[in-house]
Amino acid sequence: MPCPPKWALLFALLATHVAVSGATTLEEYETYQNCLASSSCSRLWIDGEISFTGTLPTSLGSISGLTYLQIRSNDFTGTLPTELGKLAKLKLLDFYNGGQITGHIPTELGSLEAVTYIKFEKNDLFGPFPTELGLLTTLLHLNMRYNNLNGTIPAATQLTSLWLGHNDLSGTLPTELGLLTHITEYFDLSQNSFTGTIPTELGKLTGTSRTLDISNNDLTGPLPTEMGKLAKVTNLDVSESSLWPMWRDPCGCGGVFNFRYRSGDGLYLSTATTFSTTNHTSPTITLTATLTTLTTLTATLTAITATTTAITATSATTTNFTTSTHIC
Fold first, then answer.
1. What confidence tens digit (pLDDT) does each residue in 69-106 have?
2. Is the bond preceding residue 245 a cis peptide, omega within 30 degrees?
3. Is 227 helix (H, G, I), strand (E, B) or coil?
4. Pick from 107, 114, 109: nearest CA to 95
5. Of 101, 109, 169, 264, which is least packed with CB atoms within 10 Å of its CB?
């Protein structure tokens, strides 16, 4: 008796899985071979359900029609092939958690004139950023988190998100960061080794609407008053550095803020600017206003104390009168 259609489909899927499981390198993968042989192959997406070993093949550069190349959560070793720079139509390049991909970022990637999104998060890349990346006028999203990169931050002023956290970047934060005025999503330089003070130019990133994270560095000094202009930021984190002073959370919500701001909490600044409201309708309240508030509270407490004293005295008089009447 022939198998029902649903069982036939299941057997076909199992057969396909067996064929894929037998491929240990990307070049042995049938889908990759088909993509190489086709002039119309525009997307190559390989996720962690298929685990490959070996190096990334240089033949990737010969798939001239590729616009999306996404290879994630695998066990590749070796370096990024320089041939990737030949993919002139490529818009998205994503090697998230590729395994032990190491070495430098190829300067040839500066030839990707159509690319808008590059993500090499969670690999073992090291060395400086090639200056060629900063010249890509179409690049909008750059994510290089969790590598060992150093050197100068790419000066691609059209970027809308920049993720460079958890690397080996050091030195002072460059004032040129203030040129990244198109950042509207994420700006992450956390978990590096930056030193010195926070440049006032960061206050120019007024378009940032989500996260600005420069936490876990070796930054010192006060938080610039210009940071109060970041009215759209919903997550500002400069914690775990040597910034001063640290102000205690008056409501006991978070212990010591250490300048960490989370949506729903307050951001305590230095004595130059003291408090940024949680809803950002009024970005800053000056120290004078704060002192005025404290003065008002002190006056209120004094009045309450006087009223309490008067009530106590009245109660004592009433008690004595009652006692005397009883004796009589």
1. 999 888 899 999 999 999 999 999 999 987 789 999 99
2. yes
3. helix
4. 109
5. 264
Give the type of residue at 63.
I
DSSP E strands: which ranges in the chain?
43-46, 68-71, 76-79, 92-94, 99-103, 117-119, 124-128, 141-143, 148-150, 161-163, 170-172, 186-188, 193-196, 211-213, 218-221, 235-237, 242-243, 267-268, 275-276
pTM of the model: 0.71
Contact 150, 175 (CB under 8 A): no
Residue type, 134: G
Q: pLDDT at residue 144 above 80?
A: yes
Asked whether the beta carbons of 172 and 148 are under 8 A apart, the reply is no
Token pair of 179 as six digits = 């040129």
Evaluate whether 170 touches 192 at the Cβ level (below 8 Å): yes
Phi, psi of 195 (to 5 degrees): -125, 175
Consecutive H or E run containing 34? helix 30-37
The length of the chain in residues reads 328
| Beta bridge pairs of residue 125 | 103
User: Using CA atoms, how far apart are residues 230 and 203, in angstroms rounded to an integer?
Assistant: 6
CA angle 121, 127, 131 (to 5 degrees): 90
| 3 state DSSP class of 134 | helix
Cα distance between residue 26 and residue 13, in whole Å:
20
CA 95 to chain CA centroid, Å, is 18
